[in-house]
Amino acid sequence: MEALWAAGGLLLALALLAFLLYCCYVRYIHAKYDHIPGAPRESFLFGHLPIIWRMVRKQEFTPDLLLQWAEKYGPVIRMNAFHRVSVLIVSPEGVKEFLMSPQHPKDPIVYGTLFRLFGERFLGNGLVTVCNHEHWHKQRRIMDPAFSRSYLIGLMDTFNEKAEELMEKLEEKADGKTEFSMLSMMSRVTMDIIGKVAFGLELNSLSDDQTPLPNAVTKVMEGLNKARVPFMRFIPGKQKFVKEVRESVRLLRRVAKECIDRRREAIQNGKEATMDILTQILKGAALEETRDDENILDNFITFFVAGHETSANQMTFTVMALGQHPEILERAQAEVDEVLGAKRDVDYEDLGKLTYLSQVVLCLFGALAWLSSSSSRSRTKAGAESGKEILKESLRLYPPVSGTLRRLEKDDVINGIRIPGNTTVFLNTYVMGRMEKFFKDPLTFDPDRFSKDAPKPYYCYFPFSLGPRSCIGQVFAQVSRGLEQHLASKHWASSGCAEHGWWWAPGATLMPCALALFCSEGRSPPCPWHVSQMLSQEQPWYLQGGAAGCTPSNCPGSACLNPNPLMEISVNIPLPAKVKHTGMCRGSWDHPMASTDTIKAGKTSAGGGHKPELAQRR
Ligand code: HEM
What we know:
This protein is of the alpha+beta class and 618 residues long. The chain has 24 helices and 15 strands. The protein starts with a helix and ends with a helix.
């Protein structure tokens, strides 16, 4: 017994000693980095983590904290977590240094966490996550031709076809009553397009939302967002979810394998291989000395994940922004009318002329052409002259991928501040895109800031990243650029609340949350925040769409011109019986293209993310 006590005591003493030594190490790290400005640490050990945890708990939007820090402590800002220090850099000099040179690899500590998802191999060593430069370069060189101009010209038919399918779906829904989630529509169309053009798969997720592969991708994205919660995998009550995510990852890899086997067989049987991403992946694999099938599967998943959600989010954000700015919408419409006229399908050559939409590559324009040709809008030159800026501006304020991380291996000096080697460096386009220092009046949506005569935002704007590791799918992403036109021409729009702005779900990518919208011309939009409040209130609520500070007591009755029975349809969650009346005021949102947002955020799988302060800054 005594021996047991002694052993226990010894273990305790050793643990204490280890802890003390660890504290000394943390102290040493603090001393090494404390010359770099940063917010005060909340805790010796946890550093700045408690601030972030608190925000995550309150479902606040963490990139806004970085923005505050950048403005207060920038351009080089220290962030502590245990013995690790990351440095956020918000200077063009720093962005240039870290993104343009292959000398600074992606940070393996951060990207390594995407190798597996809840224990299942996920992105592995695919193109986004691979950190070893040689390995990355070999893969990228082989994939690049799949994104060349000649390849993209060959894809026009597919894009036209998918665009038409989407437009048919939207037309079907546009009866002024039917509710649907715009984000989910965008997600499905981008998934169908990537499936087809990258891997020759007909997913048909736009017409059938029960197809297994798209559902698995959605589940995996949800898992990716939730995986940020520490020890999520081991939390009781989350086991079912974790199991579903793991099964989805396995399903993706299984489908990938079948698809690859089919393609290999076809090639062996002498069939001419389509020049798509899969062919390129296989070509790359064939050049390797040892075949690495797992790496092929990594890339299959990488393209699905990297390609579809980012594009869908960007499309939806842009649609929302256009909904808020009818005058910009009109200019965009004018351009499409002018360039496409009555054409139904769009040629590759047309794309260059749609300057407003910045070298649009994908042919959602096919449908747009048709839609705009049926419109009676007047044709002006204004749109064509100023067009291409909208999407750039949308990506400035709402970049789906907010930033990227690099590893600084040796000491360096940026903006006169010495950064020690072996540090994670964080470059963030969301933060820089919202700083007054780089963009005048940064929270105003103003596409003209990207016009051809305006000063170029060098190294402070990088929604597709910059340099060698920039987005290979940038041109694919332009699929979105037709969609706004369609939405423009059909009076689809979305809205936010003057008080609460848009909802965001910070996750693997930035995604808009309050996205279920339906085409309801002439109807004023309710504010998602107010609807959510209404749902959680005890007393009956009088909903006053979009107006700030609306309460049952101050609802000015007569202002509620538009008692709206459809409100109940437009809210995803069944309204409690106690909601007696849902009138909507004709307030600042009352413009001819008003439509309705409904609540998804905070109550749904989107993860919720709401930050009231955002609104004032939009
Ligand atoms: C609006 C849409 C998109 C945005 C905003 C976007 C943004 C980005 C960003 C910021 C990166 C760098 C990531 C990092 O440094 O960790 C990236 C990389 C990448 N993206 Fe995209 N992307 C979009 C669409 C696409 C599409 C459609 C595809 C595929 C068809 C794609 C495939 C990739 C790949 C493979 C990489 C890794 C490139 C490399 O490291 O060589 N992306 N993207």
